[in-house]
Amino acid sequence: MDGNRRYGKKQNLKEGAGHSAGYSALMSMLRYCYELGVRYVTIYAFSIDNFKRSSEEVQSLMDLLQEKIEGLIKEESIVNSYGVRVYFIGNLQLLSEPVRLAADRAMLATAKNSKAVLLVCIAYTSKNEIVHAVQEACEEKLDEVTEMYSSKDGYGLIRLGENEEGERDYLVKLVDIEKHMYMAVAPDPDIIIRTSGETRLSNFLLWQSAYCYLYSPSVLWPEIGFRHFLWAILNFQQNHFYLDKKRKQL
Amino acid sequence: MNFKEEVQLLHGCIGQVGNLVVKLLWHLQHVMVSLWYFGIGMADSLESYCISKGLLRRYKSLHIGRLRYLAIVVESEDAHQTAKIIELLEWLAAVGVKQVCLYDTEGKNFLESHENDILLDQKNFTLEFASFSDGKEAVVKAANVLFMKYFKLSASCRNQEDQIFTEAQMTEALKAVGCIGLEPDLLLVYGPVRCHLGFPPWRLRYTEIIHMGPLKFMRYGSLRKAIYKFTMVRQNYGK
User: Fold this and answer.
1) Which residue range forms the structural domain that includes residue B48?
2) Which of A41, A172, B128, B235 has the most other CB atoms within 10 Å of its CB?
């Protein structure tokens, strides 16, 4: 959702108004997605890298996030009208307590919704996600291993240290890491849209985007409309057969 | 057949015809999208011709210093087209690129067996190969390195997770398993779709990804334009 600040400057809006305009654009886009039957939508709301911004801007973004998260659980909100389950994806411990609590409440309130899913990446980077998943996988494996060998009087523990036989003989496997990814609650995305013509992923879904169509329209996020969404879908459909074939080849 | 059955049959027929019309419209829509891209392709070819003849002043000089490391993604099927690949690498060397990573999903290291190649003998040009196994599989190997550290340290005292499970430690572990690769500044995708096809995720953080079209239609002018556009980008890195 790139381009909120640029939009604000372009329209001579006051500080932070660009992000509010971005929020309205987000609500429209979510409506189009859910109307068209898109089941999983992930948005990059706040990166760990964004904490580097000025404290005033970070605080104003946090206030906006808290306000909008609380708005999500209201009766008339989009998540209730479309039966959307909301997940907050990222290192939530980095958030201030009010925002974290609001996120927990929203996840709890929407836990029973099952028609569609909204994943909000907040205090997220892909590298942080990968390291976290590796840590969880290792901690789980350590508990398993300790339990398994504790009954064998340490013999098994000694053997573990020597266990470097074949290349495929790993204790921590790919499936162990992947199940601990924050994004494990959703399948890999089919299309990633980054607005404002920026062509990099900026630490977003690096692990999950191997066979994903990357689309970079030049429009600023607050100016995105239905025609951009439709064009993205048409492009995705043009490339779907090829990417599906590639995915299956693996 | 009574009246009710006739009406139902008519509804069924109308429904089928309606479906057929919608499908035809959908196909027509996609034909128009393809025609649009065909037109764009023609315009790009013309622009590329002008760039390679030096007719467009903007692309004449490139601030190549900003491009320290470039990666190229090719289709595994195209990896056999050694002549095309070498031509591309020669273009890159001519433009002033010094470090290149060549990636294809299956890792068909076609050039590794290519001897007597003048390009690869050039002192200031380093070429690295990568494949899908340098991505997720490498992270698995690195995870096991970290696990062994964690296991050994946990025997003495617990709560070492904060020191072992960091991005820096992961990078070191990846180096230890042979994945030393840097993060490319620019990634050029030579294929039908703008998709990185599993390029190692640990190295893609801030990489600019540009789609160049299929390898068989590669053009020198388009390459210059892509590098020029890269040199004009200003990243905030989240700030």
Assistant:
1) 1-60
2) A172
The reply to whether A236 touches chain B by the CB within 8 Å rule is no
State whether residue A166 sits within 8 Å of chain B by CB.
no
In this predicted structure, the answer to whether residue A79 has a pLDDT above a threshold of 60 is: yes
Q: Name residues 1-40 of chain A within 8 A of B (Cβ).
A: none
Percent of chain A at pLDDT > 70 equals 92
**Cα–Cα distance between A117 and A91 in angstroms, integer?**
19
Say whether B202 and A250 touch across the interface (CB within 8 A).
no
Indicate the DSSP class of residue B194: S
B21, B95: one domain:
no
| Residues B201, B97 share a domain | yes
In a domain, B239, yes or no: no
> Are A207 and B201 a contacting pair at CB < 8 A?
yes
What is the ipTM score, two decimals?
0.89
**Domain total in chain B:** 2
We report the CATH number of the domain holding residue B178 as 3.40.1180.10
Which one of B198, B201, B238 has the shortest CB-CB distance to A126? B201
Tokens of B32: 């128009």
Chain A residue numbers with beta carbons less than 8 Å from the beta carbon of B146 are: 134, 138
Evaluate whether A109 touches A58 at the Cβ level (below 8 Å).
no
Q: Is the pLDDT of residue A133 over 60?
A: yes
Q: Dihedral of the CA atoms A182, A183, A185, A187 (nearest 10)?
A: -160
Q: Give the integer Cα–Cα distance in Å for B171 and B232.
A: 29
Same domain, B11 and B125: no
pLDDT exceeds cutoff 60 at B236: yes
- Minimal Cβ distance to A242: which of B146, B193, B205: B193
Q: Which of residues 1-30 of B touch A (CB under 8 A)?
A: 29-30
Range name among A54-58, A94-98, B120-124 with the lowest pLDDT average: B120-124
Tell me the whole-structure pTM to 2 decimals: 0.90
Q: Are A116 and A77 in contact (CB under 8 A)?
A: no
